[in-house]
Amino acid sequence: MIDNRFKDKIALVTGAGSQRGIGRGTALALAKEGAQVVITDIVADNVKSVTSELNAISRAIGEVADVRDKQAMIQVVTKTVEVLGGLDILVNVAGLTRPTSFLGITEEEYDLVLDVNLKGTFLTTQAAVPALLARGGGSIISLASVSGQRGGGVFGTSAYSASKAGIMGLTKALARELTPLGIRVNCVAPSMVDTDIAGDLLTDERRVELAKGTLIGRLGTVDDVVKSILFLASEESSYLTGVTLDVNGGMHLH
Ligand SMILES: NC(=O)c1ccc[n+]([C@@H]2O[C@H](COP(=O)([O-])OP(=O)(O)OC[C@H]3O[C@@H](n4cnc5c(N)ncnc54)[C@H](O)[C@@H]3O)[C@@H](O)[C@H]2O)c1
Questions:
Q1: Known catalytic residues?
Q2: What is the pLDDT of residue 217?
Q3: How far is CA 219 from CA 3, 187, 229, in A?
């Protein structure tokens, strides 16, 4: 951890309610390094508890907001600017997966995965960009996945893979459009990280098997991903934009 890397910065992290999740880890790490942080999630109790953890470190706001709801995300950004004074960093973490096979997946399930993962990232970014521009620029980081590069193969299936490949394309398109205006846009592509996203499917046996598939010899941790997100949010990555940063322990080389 580098002290005060984000002093005077204001960050918004979506999907930050889950106790063992990448969003909470990112929000806490940003706060510990000096940022004021706004978090969102759809689970009210989790928003409350992570917000109080954050408030013990620095000034924070927690909002129950669904990334699929454009107006709700605009309201979150408006409140961020009114209460904290602006927005410099957006981290699009909210996401979900479904293990259903291609022939089994219903249109509703496909829509849910694409709407939360891809459209949610799109709408949240659209809501946030005017505030970033008002500060003269900033940094946007979204959560892609190795699943979008190699076609799933762990727990994510077709819809998840399509949504995460979409995030990588969206990242490049937004980098082209927004970087000349001062906003760097990047994403991270983790392999399997031990959180609650896979539900009960990540058994001890599967953990060992997945670790063997990496070159580093272990599963990724939330901390591994958080460090990469903070790197992309910080000035240390000032010449990086449109990049997909692999955080996969060598599971997928390309
Ligand atoms: N864990 C992994 O192995 C892994 C690997 C690659 C990418 N990712 C991506 O990282 C991100 C975080 O995953 P995680 O492992 O921390 O999962 P998680 O399930 O712990 O956290 C996801 C959070 O998003 C929230 N969320 C779901 N739908 C939402 C919505 N409509 N609006 C707002 N919030 C919503 C959930 O309530 C939850 O708190 C996801 O985008 C995921 O696809 C995870």
A1: 160
A2: 96
A3: 27, 20, 18
Distance CA 84, CA 117 (A): 27
| Cα 212 to ligand 1 centre (Å) | 24
Q: Which atom of ligand 1 has the smallest separation from the CA of 144?
A: 7
This prediction has a pTM of 0.98
Residues 175, 183: contact at Cβ < 8 Å?
no
Q: What is the pLDDT of residues 87-138, one digit of tens each?
A: 999 999 999 999 999 999 999 999 999 999 999 999 999 999 999 999 999 9
Q: Whose CA is nearest to atom 8 of ligand 1?
A: 145
Mean pLDDT of 246-251: 97
* Any ligand 1 atom below 6 A from CB of 116: yes
Question: Is the distance from CB of 237 to CB of 208 less than 8 angstroms?
Answer: no
DSSP H helices in 10-119:
22-32, 44-55, 70-84, 107-114
Q: Is the pLDDT of residue 1 over 90?
A: no
What are the backbone dihedrals phi and psi of residue 122, each rounded to the nearest 5 degrees, phi first?
-60, -50
Which tokens sit at 182?
């001062």
For 73-85, the pLDDT digits (tens) are 999 999 999 999 9
Structure tokens at 225: 């991903």
Q: The tokens 């927004």 sit on which residue?
A: 178
Domains of the chain: 10-246 (3.40.50.720)
Q: Is residue 194 in contact with ligand 1, taking CB distance under 6 Å?
A: no
| C-alpha–C-alpha distance, residues 125 and 142, integer Å | 9
Q: Is the CB of 193 under 6 A from ligand 1?
A: yes
